[in-house]
Amino acid sequence: MYIAVVAVMCKPHRCPHINMTGNICVYCPGGPDSDFEYSTQSYTGYEPTSMRAIRARYDPYLQTRHRVEQLKQLGHSVDKVEFIVMGGTFMSLPEDYRDYFIRNLHDALSGHKSSSVEEAVKYSERSNTKCIGITIETRPDYCLERHLSDMLKYGCTRLEIGMLKKLD
């Protein structure tokens, strides 16, 4: 059984680590303050997912529709989709943006325009193309109970946690 992996990027935003320390980590070359125009914090903008996101102006609906269509044209099955939400610490973004982003991922699969994340997830579950998982990039300090509750609401099944130092 094939699962189509669809990587999408949230809009460029400043890493919360910069606000706390004033420093940019060496492994995060991008972001709004970098030389890489329009890139997200932990990417340069030259990665395939970054380039697709830039072309779609970071619109989650368009990123999803374009990538699913591309995979179909390449002969891949798209009955089951797993999203990877890239672009840095997704959970540090405002809740209304996160809800908009996740809602549009699900809506892009179902073709339904939902008014809430919960509605979008329900339609996505009944769609011909189903979301079977979501991976979210985040940091240890954005894995608190309130963040985990939101991630479960979104349909998150896996976390990719970036460590800033060995003691995190």
TrEMBL record:
The keyword Ligase does not apply. Keywords: 4Fe-4S, Iron, Iron-sulfur, Metal-binding, S-adenosyl-L-methionine. Signal peptide: none annotated. One of its GO terms (cellular component) is elongator holoenzyme complex. It comes from the Eukaryota. GO terms for biological process: tRNA wobble base 5-methoxycarbonylmethyl-2-thiouridinylation. The keyword Lyase does not apply. PANTHER family: ELONGATOR COMPLEX PROTEIN 3, HISTONE ACETYLTRANSFERASE-RELATED. This is Elongator complex protein 3. It comes from Rhamnusium bicolor.
